[in-house]
Amino acid sequence: MTGLGHRPLAALASALLVFAVAACSGGSDDTSTTTSGPTPTGPPDTTPPVSGVLIDLTITDGAVEGGVARHEVRLHEVVVIRVTSDEAEEVHVHGYDLVLDVTPGEPAELTFAADIPGVFEVELEGSGRKVAELQVA
Questions:
Q1: N or C: which end of the chain has fewer CB within 10 A?
Q2: Which residue has the higher pLDDT, 18 or 5?
Q3: What is the pLDDT at residue 114?
């Protein structure tokens, strides 16, 4: 070897060590951690995951605002049905046999995986009025 000896190799090793330490530390002095669930500063986020569907229903005088609609959902997708009603009622998702109790003026949510293909009624159980259709394919 000439007059350089092991210096290029030592310099490379030092640079890699500095890079590895910086990568592990995130390169900042931020010591915050990420937690799941609601934060103390606000309500939890009720938006479904990216692969999910939110069906938002507002019921006034026993009828869904905007009329009864068919909501198409892919098989195995996460579904969130959010219902706000001016009357106490029970919302029933046929085929899945899921029930959601609704208190006047307070949004209520039902979250489930759409694992059964077909077309299903979503109705107000007490009055028997259909408020939506769920098509899972």
A1: N
A2: 5
A3: 97
CA nearest to 61, candidates 106, 109, 124: 124
- CATH number of residue 81's parent domain: 2.60.40.420
CA distances 94 to 34, 45, 128, Å, are 38, 27, 12
Q: Which helix (H) or strand (E) holds 21?
A: helix 7-25
What's the whole-model pTM score?
0.63
**79 within 8 A of 112, measured Cβ to Cβ:** yes
Q: How many domains, the chain?
A: 1
Spatial separation of the C-alpha atoms in residues 84 and 56, rounded to whole Å: 8
pLDDT tens sequence across 28-72: 444 433 344 444 455 565 554 446 899 999 999 989 999 999 999
At residue 38, the 3 state secondary structure works out as coil
Contact yes or no for 109/46 (Cβ under 8 A): yes
Cα of 88 vs its chain's centroid, Å: 26
CB atoms within 10 A of CB 78: 16
